[in-house]
Amino acid sequence: MGAILAAAGSAVGLGNIWRFPYETGNSGGAAFILIYIACILFFGLPVMIAEFTIGRHSRANTARAYQILAPGTQWRWVGRWGVLTGFCILGYYTVVAGWCLEYVIDSASNAFANKVSADFVDMFNSFVSNPWKPAVLMTLFMLATHVIITKGVQKGIERSAKILMPVLFILLLFLAVCSITLPGASAGIDFLLKPDFSKVNADVFLSALGQTFYSLSLGMGCLCTYASYFRADTKLPNTALSIASIDSMVAILAGFIIFPAAFAVGINPDAGPSLIFITLPNVFTQAFGDIPFIATALSLMFYILLSLAALTSTISMHEVVTLYLHEEFNFTRKKAAWVVTIVCGFIGILCALSFGVLSDFTIFGKTLFDAFDFVTAKIMLPTGGFFIAIFTGWFLDHRVLRAELSPCRTLHPYIYRAIIIILRYVAPAGIAMVFFNELGFFS
Ligand code: PHE
């Protein structure tokens, strides 16, 4: 139960509440969501089942798992690739987690009171371009992750996840109702529900694919590592289905909070990474402006929960890299954790400052933060997913797959066949096509 909760905790995080709305906003709304749901069914779920299989069967960290299942082959590079990906995501993910901390402080000090939409945009911009604040908060968040990883209080986190997730879900549901009932919200609901396929291009497919892997923590061995702690009788396909459903519901709920509010107060849905930070305070102040106490309590609760949800995700990334250094390089756990914290912290500081003092430093026209987000989510994770699908579909002994997926033959044979066919053909071909499409091969 703990391991499954931890896996769900890894999946639900900023990817759902921060990244999903901004990707949806950039990609035109409902049509993106439909493609995203298709990506979850055809790529996300099968690759999650594959990672679970690899993890539980090998009972090892992600890099060693491939050495156990395919000794002496180059497959171990898939595990190493995952470790590198986790390392890069952790570096910039903590920047956004640091922003959440700032909003916890703002909520507690009542900084949203008597403000209107334009003020929230100014507030956000002046905060992220501050020469030290975002870097300090990011460092604090990284240190919090470090303490949990080294002090072994994961158990406590798992237990709190049990309470945290339902509370977060109820709060999101409540905020969605508040947002939908704001005057002028209906344009936002249309944006979410009425697909406009004329806006769909190669970028939209790549964004949906990247978001699938990102949100489900797939393609980098995170869930593989957690699955190594699953019980022998945990039903892998059912567990994958539950995690994917919870994760998607949280993301879609976040969409129902952000877009009605954004349209109601005149914020462009394609505002990018700032979207939730400039939209949400409006929901608190507009819906509860007359009762400031409730507005403060709600926003405080929301940002604390969001920070905790981000923490259960950063722990999972940190753990993958720490465990790898600890087991493969014989570092002590403490030393391994410090290496990860310091190097990722350094990347994080650079990314945090890329909205301000380092904003002129670009790579292919992208700031450091955007470059890390693009490369990890849209290139590294789908590439990892591609090889995980091929490994499980083509190279893993089918007896292993059958024993892990359906130990007591409880899985319907059609479902079993469907999983195999998707892992062998559909997922690899689909991911490759999205990449080729992005490179302009089909246009
Ligand atoms: N899935 C996490 C989220 O939605 C992010 C994450 C990605 C965590 C990859 C681990 C690995 O916030």
- Order of the strands making up the biggest sheet: 1-2
Distance between the termini: 47 Å
Helix content: over 70%
Would you identify the CATH architecture?
Orthogonal Bundle
Strand content: under 5%
Uncertain runs with pLDDT below 50, 5 residues or more?
none
Q: In CATH, what is the homologous superfamily?
A: Hydantoin permease
Number of helices: 18
Number of folding domains? 1
The ordered string of helix (H) and strand (E) elements is: HHHHHHHHHHHHHHHEEHHH
Mass-distribution shape: globular
Topology (elements, then pairings):
Layout: H1 2-11, H2 14-26, H3 30-58, H4 62-69, H5 76-108, H6 117-128, H7 133-151, H8 154-180, H9 186-193, H10 202-215, H11 222-227, H12 236-265, H13 275-288, H14 292-328, H15 333-352, E1 362-363, E2 366-367, H16 368-395, H17 398-405, H18 413-438
Antiparallel strand pairs: 1-2
Helix pairs in contact: 1-8, 1-12, 1-14, 2-10, 2-12, 3-4, 3-10, 3-12, 3-16, 3-17, 3-18, 4-5, 5-7, 5-14, 5-15, 5-16, 6-13, 7-14, 7-15, 8-12, 8-14, 9-12, 10-16, 10-18, 12-13, 13-14, 14-15, 16-18
Bound molecules: phenylalanine.
Folded structure, characterized:
This protein is mainly α and 443 residues long. It has one domain (2-438): Hydantoin permease, CATH 1.10.4160.10. Helix content is 77%, strand content 1%. It has helices spanning 2-11, 14-26, 30-58, 62-69, 76-108, 117-128, 133-151, 154-180, 186-193, 202-215, 222-227, 236-265, 275-288, 292-328, 333-352, 368-395, 398-405, 413-438; strands at 362-363, 366-367. The protein has a two-stranded antiparallel ribbon with strand order 1-2. A hairpin with a 2-residue loop joins β1 (362-363) and β2. α7 (133-151) crosses α14 (292-328), α13 (275-288) packs antiparallel against α14 and α16 packs across α18. It is globular, with a radius of gyration of 21 Å. The termini are far apart. Phenylalanine (PHE) binds at residues 10-11, 13-16, 89, 214-215, 217, 220, 222, 313, 316-317.
